[in-house]
Amino acid sequence: MAERAHHGGELRLRIGEAAARAGVSERTLRYYEEIGLLSPAGHSVGGCREYGPAELARVTRIRELQELLGLELDEIRGVVAREDRIDTLRDAYRRSEGDEERRAILLEALQTTEALYLRVSARVERIAAFRDELAETISRYRTWLAGEIPQPERPAAV
Amino acid sequence: MAERAHHGGELRLRIGEAAARAGVSERTLRYYEEIGLLSPAGHSVGGCREYGPAELARVTRIRELQELLGLELDEIRGVVAREDRIDTLRDAYRRSEGDEERRAILLEALQTTEALYLRVSARVERIAAFRDELAETISRYRTWLAGEIPQPERPAAV
DNA sequence: AGAAATTCTGACGTTGACGTAAGCTGGCGC
DNA sequence: GCGCCAGCTTACGTCAACGTCAGAATTTCT
């Protein structure tokens, strides 16, 4: 097995295995690093990239945003950057830092998440509407197949 | 006004107006024609493209498939080609042609539509799940803002 | 008719998200 | 030591979906 346990006990994969598990190419992982979207958890002595579970999860998240929402990697960087700031915030809580600053970061995260939520909601509803249209079309086809004569309806929607 | 009524009484727009109403560029319309995705309803004597309501509706449909479902124009051609065959079928019904052939076309249309329906359904559910995740994140943020201390939970999903 | 606006047909340019190939390097198995 | 595999960097190639520009032709306005 090519896996290897880090000194902290965390699973560390080199790029080949990491790419295979995430379902992307090695080139994709290097490219994500190139554009500052995802850097490996660390490097081996020889300079090989090493990825942990968090990085794999992030790849999955990136692909979701890309394929499901049609976001560009550029925008996605903003989204995951926000998530990173939240992780930072979690640490800040534990280290009990400036309260005012914490509120600000949290508020900003709340707002950007809500904005994303609205986008996703709108998208979900449009696609659901499209799906319902398809369902109607299907039942219409079924009716026709049962022997009915189709109406030459043309709503001519513009 | 740049509009003009066709001899059949149908609205005919030249490429500029058509593109504006459909919310795309002129180049896009010409490109769609280039790849056999959408041809104008007709041409003027001098060779200018003329688009009717049906073509505008088709552009809208194409953009839906492209943006909402992330389909490539290549695949979309298949989908709209099927819709065209259905229109043809409607005419065939009126001209009362071969019954066996009609059933075959209708059955094929039903199947491809059902296949598309499944794709769309799957997509809708994945996006809805993502939206729900966001909703949870938001309420978590709200709780934190209300004074709670965040838990350093890391599911480490792979 | 003549000017102005729109459209036509090529043809080349662009952008995002990688693919691919070349040449070099580090660790291992025998 | 030697071969081999996986990985590294660098750099050019690709593909879809248009954008853009030039120069000629069409349509509209006055």
Overall mean pLDDT of chain A stands at 86
Q: Main sheet of chain A, how many strands, which sense, barrel?
A: 4 strands, antiparallel
Classify the oligomer: homodimer
CATH class of chain A: Mainly Alpha
CATH topology of chain A: Multidrug-efflux Transporter Regulator, Chain: A, Domain 2
Largest interface: A-B, 48 and 48 residues
Q: Distance N terminus to C terminus of chain A?
A: 60 Å
Question: What general form of chain A does the structure show?
Answer: flat
Query: Element order, helices and strands of chain A?
Result: EEHHEEHHH
What does the model show?
Two copies of one chain form a homodimer. Chain A has helices spanning 15-22, 26-34, 53-69, 73-94, 99-145, and strands at residues 4-5, 11-14, 42-43, 49-51. Chain A is an alpha+beta fold and 158 residues long. Chain A has a single domain, classed as Multidrug-efflux Transporter Regulator, Chain: A, Domain 2 (Orthogonal Bundle). Chain A has a four-stranded antiparallel β-sheet. In chain A, a hairpin with a 5-residue loop joins strand 1 and strand 2. In chain A, helix 1 (15-22) crosses helix 3. Chain A starts with a strand and ends in a 13-residue tail after the last helix. The mean pLDDT of chain A is 86. The first copy, chain A, binds a DNA duplex (30 and 30 nucleotides) through residues 2, 14-16, 25-28, 30-31, 35, 44-49, 66, 72-74.
